[in-house]
Design brief:
The complex is a heterodimer.
Chain A (H helix, E strand, L loop, with lengths): L4 E3 L2 E4 L5 E6 L6 E8 L3 E9 L2 E5 L6 E5 L5 E5 L8 E8 L10 E2 L3 E5 L1
Parallel strand pairs in A: 2-11
Antiparallel strand pairs in A: 1-3, 3-8, 4-5, 4-9, 5-6, 7-8, 9-10, 9-11
Chain B lengths: L4 E3 L2 E5 L4 E6 L6 E7 L6 E6 L5 E4 L2 E5 L5 E6 L8 E8 L7 E2 L3 E6 L1
Parallel strand pairs in B: 2-11
Antiparallel strand pairs in B: 1-3, 3-8, 4-5, 4-9, 6-7, 7-8, 9-10, 9-11
The chains are: A mainly beta, B mainly beta.
Chain lengths: ~120, ~110
């Protein structure tokens, strides 16, 4: 158990809908990262928050957004969902950001299926 | 854009055999991490190497960071069924927040 929690575990929805994925980092970790993992593209970095502020952006679509709240939990919002958004979404956390040896601890993931 | 290529993509071997997985890039990284991911779960960090030429051992697993910090290898001795999983390398750079993940090696150990 990494100490990172994600809800829900599974999510099934229809195209055009909007969903929210939730992540609670390990106690004491200030950074939260979101990743998307699909069969054909591996693990792709989406976005990072550090102590409530956006710190880095990766290949995140404009239909997707995230935020980190004062209690440090984070939410990833996916809207106007398309079939291609079906994937595993992982949250990871670390104590700090911006270090080259940045060790990240991953949650169990949310499996999103868009029908 | 920094890319990390892993080879082989798939590997299936008998229990007790040795194996090596490679992680290569044309870019230099400040650090290299290895993760193992089991089906339905998140990646679990195995090791972090930060010095060119560094070798770290974790029981039957040996990790090496290339001298030029562009590549890494993972060697498993006497593989066991519990080693089965997706192995991911990930490169990091000081001052850059994100990790760049490799393409992954799916390892299956046959009892």
């Amino acid at each position: 158990d990494s100490g990172v929690t994600q809800t829900p575990k599974h999510l099934i929805t229809a195209t055009g809908q909007r969903v929210t994925l939730r992540c609670s980092p390990r106690s004491g970790d200030l950074s939260v990262y979101w990743y998307q993992q699909s069969l054909d593209q591996g693990l792709q970095f989406l976005i990072q928050y550090y102590n409530g502020e956006e710190r880095a952006k990766g290949n995140i679509l404009e239909r997707f957004s995230a935020q980190q709240f004062p209690d440090l939990h984070s939410e990833l919002n996916l809207s106007s969902l398309e079939l291609g958004d079906s994937a595993l979404y992982f949250c990871a956390s670390s104590v700090v950001g911006g270090r080259g040896d940045n060790e990240q601890f991953f949650g169990p993931g949310t499996r999103l299926t868009v029908l | 854009t920094q890319l990390l290529e892993q080879s082989p993509q798939f590997l299936s071997i008998q229990e007790g055999e040795n194996l090596t997985v490679y992680c290569n890039s044309s870019s230099v990284f400040s650090s290299l991490q290895w993760y193992r991911q089991e089906p339905g779960e998140g990646p679990v960090l195995l090791v972090t190497v930060v010095t060119g030429g560094e070798v770290k051992k974790l029981k039957r697993l040996t990790f090496q960071f290339g001298d030029a910090r562009k590549d890494s290898s993972l060697h498993i001795t006497a593989a066991q069924p519990g080693d089965t999983g997706l192995y991911l390398c990930a490169g990091g750079n000081f001052g850059n927040e994100k990790l760049t993940f490799g393409t992954g090696t799916r390892l299956t150990i046959i009892p």
